Amino acid sequence: MLKELLFPLVNYFSAFNIFQYITFRAAYAAVTALFISFILGPRIIKALKKFKLGQMIRTDGPQSHLHKSGTPTMGGVIIILAVLISSLLWQDLSNPYVWISLISLAGFGAVGFLDDYLKITRKSSEGLHARFKMVGQIAVSLIIVLFLYLNRNDHTTLLYIPFMKTPVLDLGVLYIPIGVFVLVSWANAVNLTDGLDGLAIGLVIMAGIAFAILTYITGRADFASYLQIPYLPESSELPVFCFGLVGAAVGFLWFNSHPAEVFMGDTGSLALGGALGVMSLIIKKEILMVIIGGVFVLETLSVVIQVVSFKLTGRRVFKMAPLHHHFELKGWAETKVVIRFWIMGGMFAILALSTLKIQ
Asked: How many Å apart are CA 288 and CA 358, to the nearest integer?
């Protein structure tokens, strides 16, 4: 919005020329989202406490978590509002990818919000029925993927894999169900990872920075040509969204660091996972996303392995799933698990970016 309002004034004052630069607007989107989080955070946390919107802790989880019962949840609202406001201020609103990214954030956030609300009102760790929760996520995903498919470019339905310059397959109409699977999978991967103070949000920060870099080079013809990756000019606005997401996440981490003053709940985890998934679809990094979000993948696999093993053999592979609980029960302090998983997340992000040159 600020670009549309202020850039035309360049004819009168040359300093307004700075609003055309993605790097400037992306940096200030991050700063804006960060300050919005700092401003809204205490107020929203106070309101959540006032209305007794506290987290219900599962009794079958680690006993060390029982004291967290009653901690305000639905804090993902802080993140969503910060990203929405900063994006509307700093992005070029004529770009369709701006709106699809915001719709993904708000849409998945709405499904998570309903789930969190039902958990609180029912005073149970079980919220929205799993079937209806999945239907909601699929519906949001289908809207997003259909938009991308109906407004497809030369690269939309192509499948790229790391270390290879050319696409390996044209998915055609199969892009629609595969795209829906990608979005639902990442929304739930982040949701499963959100079990320790600061864990999921710290990993989202690293993934967000990686996507900010990827969207920037994908939207620049010179960089895309040099690295031999798809050039998608309309993705040039996405670094602003990604840095806004990072800024909001850093602001939320201020309140979510151990001991957490607020939890993001499904409101935040589904929204963040859906937003990252959309970035991967738009810039054709669906497979690379497996590396970028490596810790999310490991957390999800631990749950799948645990369930399959128990159903087939009656034995558990891990002391508890997701994976972070396994290490807690092995005696690692919560903060040690979080920091070590952050280190892994940073390594995965760096590894993913290195693949751009190794192809």
From this structure: 13
Alpha helices in 51-174 (DSSP H): 76-90, 96-122, 130-150
Inside any domain, residue 359? no
Range of the domain at 117: 2-354
pLDDT digits (tens, 9 = 90+) for 88-112: 999 999 999 999 999 999 999 999 9
Examine residue 170 and state whether it is found in any structural domain, yes or no: yes
Range of weakest confidence among 90-94, 141-145, 343-347: 90-94
Q: How far apart are CA 138 and CA 225, in angstroms?
A: 35
Identify the residue with better confidence: 5 or 239: 239
pTM > 0.70: yes or no: yes
DSSP state of 34: H
Number of domains in the chain: 1
Q: Which amino acid is at 306?
A: Q
How far is residue 305's CA from residue 297's CA, in Å, rounded to a whole number? 12
Cβ burial of 304 (10 Å; 0-12, 13-18, 19+) is: exposed
CA 234 centroid distance within chain: 20
Q: What angle do CA 118, 119, 121 make, to 5 degrees?
A: 60
Which range is least confidently modeled, 25-29, 53-57, 192-196, 223-227? 53-57
| pLDDT bracket for residue 67 (50, 70, 90) | low
Q: What does the angle CA 307 – CA 54 – CA 77 come to, to the nearest 5 degrees?
A: 90
CB 281 within 8 Å of CB 183: yes
